[in-house]
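Quarterly update from the structural biology core.
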Amino acid sequence: MRPAPVRPYAAHTAALPPAATTQPPRYLTNDEAAGYLRLSPRTLEKQRVLGGGPRFRKFGRRVMYAVADLDAWADQRSFEATSDPEYAECHAADSRAR
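Predicted structure, tokenized:
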């Protein structure tokens, strides 16, 4: 019977402090962000021009979205019922902007 293979880096990564193993903020392209939010890429493009969309960053010509910003933007649009006063206020503002 053969011994189990040894993972060469398993011991090394386990010894690192948690701060060293955390991932840097992840940025998504317009198409990836649209897929993440299940929106059309064109919707995000319009919202960048008109306002009201998630925060974005420009790296040269590239438009990128941080996952944390997409989550925060989506959380701001969370309601419990259509009779919620905040929902009515937000929905009325959206229809006036059109």
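Residues 23-97 form a domain with the Arc Repressor Mutant, subunit A fold (CATH 1.10.10).
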